[in-house]
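Operator note (shift B, R.M.): manual run for Peptidoglycan hydrolase requested after the automated queue skipped it. Running by hand, logging everything below so the morning shift can see what happened. Input copied straight from the record, untouched. If output looks odd, do not overwrite the archive copy; leave it for review.
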Amino acid sequence: MARIEYHKKTAIPTRWIIGGLCLSVILIVSSILLLLYPFATKEKLDYFSGQNPILFEGKQQGNAIIDGDSVYVPLTFMQENIDESITFDEKSNSIIITTSDKVIQMPSESLTYYVNEKPVQLHFSPIRDEEGELYLALEPVIDLYPIQYSILPDSSGVWIQKDGEELEHGTITVEDVHKEKLRLRNDATLRTPYTAETKGNEEIYVEGEKDEFYFVRKKDGTAGYVHKRLVNKGKTEQITVAREQKVAALPKIDGPIQLTWEAVYTKNPKTDSIPQMPGVNVVSPTWFELANEDGEIKNLGSLDYVNWAKSNGFQVWGLFSNAFDPDLTYKAFKDFETRQKMIRELLHYSQIYHLDGINLDIENVNPEHGPLVTQFVREATPYFHEAGLIVSMDITFMASGNWSAFYEREKLATIVDYLAVMAYDEHWGSSPVAGSVASLPWVENNLQDILELVPNEKLILGVPLYTRLWAVKDSGEVSSTALAMDEVKEWLDTNKLIPAYDEASGQNYAELYVKEEQTTYKIWLEDELSLKKRAELAMKYELAGVASWSRYFADETAWLALNMEKAVTQDSK
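Run finished. Output pasted below as returned.
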């Protein structure tokens, strides 16, 4: 029988068991801490890139060039952030800057620039070309804009600030904390790379906050996140940059504007044959027209007309048109020197004829060339204002095509004194459908749209004094003839017609069927009722006034009907 041996097992000491358990707990807790506790990373990132970084609105936006005491910034930076209207004119190789009272031309590779054509000498070129990118010196233009700049210590960055910006001051805590916590982090956590270090009691700017962190900026321009409890917030400072701009001394107009255009095609009217126009305070004769691509201007001005107008208490706003030629407009408006030539000619004529204003009637322009028109107006207005001329421009309601789409209405409204909206033609002369030249609902609806872009105190409501007599044949063929107010009355009397009120158009309407011609004649009247309604519309929206096209079409009832100060609400029937 085999012998079985029994061995006694040695017991594990209790202290070993306890020690093992403690070690396990420590390992587990350490693992959890390693996973969950945000230990600060020691990785550092460069806050700025390249030499002479530009700090603007809380971030780097390109790089400057510093040459001695001169600071140059990219032209694109100025266009994108300070003034989108700054342009580069290729023909003259110049940068063009405009303000409300100045036109500045800065030719490349020149120590001279021009302010309203007056030369200004510099000891350095205001423009630099670095590898095909244009840079603009800040010194000659800083006084044109509500901005200021400073050179940042250490980084040699350029900090550009705008008028009205706020700086909230603060300091870093003086309590004894680990330097890791005083580093400015790329995001609101210690686990992201840092961009800069701070120290106790260091002055900083507080620019924002995220979770439990402030976004702060050092005096050298670098910035990042630091815990809120480590920042003592201080006072808020507002940047104030005062820039003086000359206020134009322009002729005064008592009450709302009541303008009428004088259509001058070949010669001026005999002034002794022009009837009284009670309520009218501005006449705008169509005297000046673009003649060729070199910027020469046709002139039909008349001192006799001016003397008559002034003796009747009218201001005279000479009208300049682009001949309604899109190709000619592009060729003449595309170059700075040609635009300046047109402006000089118009200034010359304004002095000859003692004008009070210029009315710009630019129509039928390719939509892509609209900015050239705006630039012409932008460059012309300071000169016209300097000469004491009121500047107005004619525009249309919003629509597609060459006759409307090119107008940059919102920009134009910031440049000129008045915009006259030609609130016609709803149905043009060759329209395939007969209808009103400008029904009242159509005018009001479009007026509401344009007032979203143009301040009411700058808008003049253009009104038609003509109407169209439509001939609609039984075959469907449609044609029209424009009639003056007296001619409409004569046609109604001849045909023994009494107009009836048309609710849809807000106008009086008449219709006649001529069997022998198999034609129906239709007419929506511009009469005393219609014109009063238009004046009331201008009053309702508190517009600057009304303008009528044209004086030739009016009868004696038109002027008082258009008088905004005497406009009263009238029963539509």
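Quick read of the result: The CA atoms of residues 72 and 137 lie 4 Å apart. The domain at 165-239 is CATH 2.30.30.40 (SH3 type barrels.).
Leaving this for review. - R.M.
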